[in-house]
Amino acid sequence: MLSDSLNQYSRQKVFDHLLSLLILLLLLCLAIVILMKYQRTALSLQAIGPLQSAKLDDLYYWNIYGVWPEDTGQAMAGLDIHKSYPDDIRVKTVIEDGAIHVEFIRGELSGQKISFRPVVPKSDPFGPVHWRTGHDVDDPDYLVQGSDRTSVEASDIPYSLR
Questions:
Q1: Per-residue model confidence as pLDDT tens digits over 96-107
Q2: Which of 129, 51, 134 shows the shortest CA–CA distance to 93?
Q3: Considering the entire predicted model, what is its pTM?
Q4: So what CATH class is 44-161?
Protein backbone atom coordinates (compact mmCIF):
# COMPACT_ATOMS: atom_id res chain seq x y z
CA MET A 1 0.00 0.00 0.00
CA LEU A 2 2.77 2.39 0.86
CA SER A 3 4.61 1.50 -2.35
CA ASP A 4 1.45 2.16 -4.41
CA SER A 5 1.04 5.64 -2.97
CA LEU A 6 4.76 6.41 -3.56
CA ASN A 7 4.49 5.08 -7.11
CA GLN A 8 1.43 7.24 -7.80
CA TYR A 9 3.16 10.24 -6.19
CA SER A 10 6.24 9.81 -8.42
CA ARG A 11 4.04 9.42 -11.54
CA GLN A 12 2.29 12.66 -10.65
CA LYS A 13 5.67 14.40 -10.25
CA VAL A 14 6.85 13.12 -13.65
CA PHE A 15 3.59 14.30 -15.26
CA ASP A 16 3.96 17.74 -13.62
CA HIS A 17 7.54 18.06 -14.86
CA LEU A 18 6.59 17.02 -18.39
CA LEU A 19 3.72 19.49 -18.44
CA SER A 20 6.03 22.27 -17.24
CA LEU A 21 8.56 21.34 -19.91
CA LEU A 22 5.87 21.38 -22.60
CA ILE A 23 4.71 24.85 -21.54
CA LEU A 24 8.30 26.13 -21.61
CA LEU A 25 8.84 24.70 -25.11
CA LEU A 26 5.66 26.35 -26.39
CA LEU A 27 6.75 29.70 -24.95
CA LEU A 28 10.18 29.30 -26.53
CA CYS A 29 8.62 28.59 -29.95
CA LEU A 30 6.40 31.63 -29.64
CA ALA A 31 9.38 33.81 -28.68
CA ILE A 32 11.35 32.58 -31.72
CA VAL A 33 8.47 33.40 -34.10
CA ILE A 34 8.13 36.90 -32.63
CA LEU A 35 11.90 37.44 -32.80
CA MET A 36 11.99 36.45 -36.48
CA LYS A 37 9.28 39.00 -37.31
CA TYR A 38 11.16 41.80 -35.55
CA GLN A 39 14.40 40.72 -37.20
CA ARG A 40 12.83 41.16 -40.67
CA THR A 41 11.55 44.59 -39.63
CA ALA A 42 15.01 45.54 -38.38
CA LEU A 43 16.53 44.41 -41.69
CA SER A 44 14.23 46.73 -43.61
CA LEU A 45 15.52 49.65 -41.51
CA GLN A 46 18.81 49.30 -43.43
CA ALA A 47 17.10 51.27 -46.20
CA ILE A 48 16.97 54.47 -44.13
CA GLY A 49 20.55 55.69 -44.72
CA PRO A 50 20.62 55.41 -48.53
CA LEU A 51 17.01 56.60 -48.67
CA GLN A 52 17.78 59.89 -46.92
CA SER A 53 20.55 60.76 -49.37
CA ALA A 54 18.40 59.87 -52.40
CA LYS A 55 15.43 61.79 -50.98
CA LEU A 56 17.45 64.98 -50.73
CA ASP A 57 18.72 64.68 -54.30
CA ASP A 58 15.21 63.89 -55.53
CA LEU A 59 13.75 66.90 -53.70
CA TYR A 60 16.52 69.27 -54.85
CA TYR A 61 15.89 68.29 -58.45
CA TRP A 62 12.13 68.75 -57.97
CA ASN A 63 12.64 72.21 -56.45
CA ILE A 64 15.02 73.36 -59.20
CA TYR A 65 13.27 71.95 -62.30
CA GLY A 66 9.67 71.43 -61.19
CA VAL A 67 9.63 67.81 -62.36
CA TRP A 68 10.84 64.60 -60.80
CA PRO A 69 14.05 63.11 -62.20
CA GLU A 70 13.57 60.19 -64.60
CA ASP A 71 16.51 58.28 -63.22
CA THR A 72 19.51 58.50 -60.93
CA GLY A 73 21.74 59.83 -63.76
CA GLN A 74 19.37 62.69 -64.52
CA ALA A 75 19.15 63.61 -60.84
CA MET A 76 22.93 63.73 -60.55
CA ALA A 77 23.52 65.57 -63.84
CA GLY A 78 20.75 68.09 -63.13
CA LEU A 79 22.23 68.89 -59.75
CA ASP A 80 25.73 69.10 -61.25
CA ILE A 81 27.09 66.67 -58.71
CA HIS A 82 29.22 63.70 -59.47
CA LYS A 83 28.40 60.94 -57.09
CA SER A 84 26.49 57.75 -57.02
CA TYR A 85 24.72 56.06 -54.21
CA PRO A 86 27.17 53.58 -52.82
CA ASP A 87 26.04 50.04 -53.35
CA ASP A 88 26.18 49.20 -49.73
CA ILE A 89 26.82 45.53 -49.06
CA ARG A 90 23.20 45.31 -47.91
CA VAL A 91 21.16 47.57 -50.23
CA LYS A 92 21.20 49.15 -53.70
CA THR A 93 19.44 52.50 -54.26
CA VAL A 94 18.02 53.73 -57.60
CA ILE A 95 15.83 56.71 -58.58
CA GLU A 96 13.30 56.17 -61.39
CA ASP A 97 10.55 58.66 -62.31
CA GLY A 98 10.97 60.40 -58.96
CA ALA A 99 10.43 57.20 -56.98
CA ILE A 100 13.29 55.80 -54.94
CA HIS A 101 13.71 52.03 -55.07
CA VAL A 102 15.84 50.31 -52.44
CA GLU A 103 16.73 46.69 -53.19
CA PHE A 104 18.09 44.44 -50.48
CA ILE A 105 21.17 42.51 -51.56
CA ARG A 106 21.91 40.32 -48.55
CA GLY A 107 20.10 38.63 -45.74
CA GLU A 108 16.59 37.36 -45.37
CA LEU A 109 15.16 40.17 -47.54
CA SER A 110 17.62 39.54 -50.38
CA GLY A 111 16.13 40.40 -53.80
CA GLN A 112 13.16 42.24 -52.31
CA LYS A 113 12.49 45.96 -52.79
CA ILE A 114 10.89 48.90 -51.03
CA SER A 115 9.72 51.80 -53.21
CA PHE A 116 9.40 55.30 -51.78
CA ARG A 117 7.17 57.48 -53.94
CA PRO A 118 6.73 61.25 -53.57
CA VAL A 119 3.18 62.47 -53.03
CA VAL A 120 2.20 66.14 -53.43
CA PRO A 121 -1.16 67.92 -53.25
CA LYS A 122 -2.65 68.68 -56.69
CA SER A 123 -3.69 72.12 -55.47
CA ASP A 124 -0.11 72.96 -54.46
CA PRO A 125 2.38 70.83 -56.41
CA PHE A 126 5.32 72.70 -54.89
CA GLY A 127 3.91 72.35 -51.40
CA PRO A 128 4.81 69.71 -48.87
CA VAL A 129 6.15 66.43 -50.22
CA HIS A 130 5.14 63.25 -48.46
CA TRP A 131 6.61 59.82 -49.16
CA ARG A 132 4.50 56.68 -49.53
CA THR A 133 5.74 53.12 -49.33
CA GLY A 134 4.08 50.01 -50.65
CA HIS A 135 0.52 51.22 -51.01
CA ASP A 136 -1.40 53.46 -53.36
CA VAL A 137 -2.92 56.76 -52.42
CA ASP A 138 -6.63 56.67 -53.24
CA ASP A 139 -7.19 60.37 -52.59
CA PRO A 140 -7.81 62.18 -55.92
CA ASP A 141 -6.44 65.41 -54.41
CA TYR A 142 -2.86 64.08 -54.47
CA LEU A 143 -0.33 63.37 -57.22
CA VAL A 144 1.76 60.24 -56.76
CA GLN A 145 4.98 59.97 -58.77
CA GLY A 146 6.70 56.77 -59.91
CA SER A 147 5.78 53.13 -59.75
CA ASP A 148 5.46 50.93 -56.70
CA ARG A 149 7.81 47.94 -56.82
CA THR A 150 7.59 47.09 -53.14
CA SER A 151 7.88 43.36 -52.58
CA VAL A 152 8.64 43.41 -48.85
CA GLU A 153 5.60 42.42 -46.79
CA ALA A 154 3.81 45.46 -45.32
CA SER A 155 4.14 43.97 -41.84
CA ASP A 156 7.94 43.90 -42.27
CA ILE A 157 8.16 47.60 -43.14
CA PRO A 158 8.54 49.75 -40.01
CA TYR A 159 5.86 52.36 -39.42
CA SER A 160 8.53 55.07 -39.70
CA LEU A 161 9.00 54.16 -43.38
CA ARG A 162 5.33 53.79 -44.40
A1: 888 888 888 877
A2: 51
A3: 0.63
A4: alpha beta
